[in-house]
Amino acid sequence: MYSLLQQLASGIAMGGIYACLGLALVMIYQSTHHINFAQGEMAMFSTFIAFLLLKWGLPYWAAALATMAFGFVAGFAIERLVLRPLGDVPELSVIVVFIGLFVGINSLAGWIFGHQLEPFPSPFPDKVPGGTTLISGHELGTVVVVLLVMGILYAFLRFTKVGLAMRASAENPVSSRLAGIPVSLMLSLGWGLSALIGAVAGLMVAPVVFLEPNMMGGVLIYAFAAALLGGIDNPWGAVAGGLIVGVIENLAGTYVVGTELKLSLALVLIVGVLLIRPSGIFGRKLVARV
């Protein structure tokens, strides 16, 4: 029983990371209706920036804030410089660009930082206050950080003018333009915000999997599964999907298929959702009159 509770707690912690990255995927999909295959690599590169700042002697949380700022600027710049010039090209062309971004960022990180495994520090203590071994300090800290990010994001999108303008631009860009909202700027801000959230996911996962250019490959697949399960057009559905995927991964990896086949569960989940309920659990079903 204790082992089961331990796996549940660990699954919720990892699910929070998948929720972060899944939320970043959903934010871009809402505004562009495209899946950003380079989302994990953008998070990985931001985490390397944090590693570099820590090596230079910057305190952890200062390095984390600087990394999130870097992620925001990088996401903003990618939308402006890479995707904006594409215009209304066919969907396949956009997919090729995303794949090119994936390969390019991964190769750039390997060229600059190398391919060796680097231990990444956790800002949280090894043990949880109270002496429980049900959950580690980093796992508990990850849950707290993810909840904090979700709360700040909710408040931003719900109660600020910029957040409301971003939501309106994603829901109905034509009407938003007529209302005087700079939709193109809101799109760039959405990319920056999604990259910032991805950077948080990278900072939380790096102490678990070690830092190297391919560290986000498996995490991105789980994040895809989370976003599809919760609903690719529903940010909070992606959060719920991330927690569900994290728990399923941990329990099935421990008691059913073993650690070697855990990643295949995410692929099965992705195919199953697309076949049975493409809109996800909390996604909207769009019905068009012909």
Automatic annotation (TrEMBL):
Compartmental location: Cell membrane
- Pfam families per the record? BPD_transp_2 (PF02653)
Q: What InterPro entries does the record point to?
A: ABC_transp_permease, BCAA_transport_permease
Which residue windows are transmembrane per the record? 12-29, 60-82, 94-114, 134-157, 178-209, 215-232, 239-257, 263-283
User: Any idea which UniProt keywords this protein has?
Assistant: Amino-acid transport, Cell membrane, Membrane, Transmembrane, Transmembrane helix, Transport
Describe its membrane topology. Multi-pass membrane protein
Main location class? membrane
User: Any signal peptide, and if so, which residues?
Assistant: none
- Per the record, the domain of life is Bacteria
Please state which protein family the record places this protein in: Belongs to the binding-protein-dependent transport system permease family. LivHM subfamily.
Q: What name is this protein filed under?
A: Branched-chain amino acid transport system permease protein
Source organism? Variovorax soli
User: Lineage of this protein's species?
Assistant: Bacteria, Pseudomonadati, Pseudomonadota, Betaproteobacteria, Burkholderiales
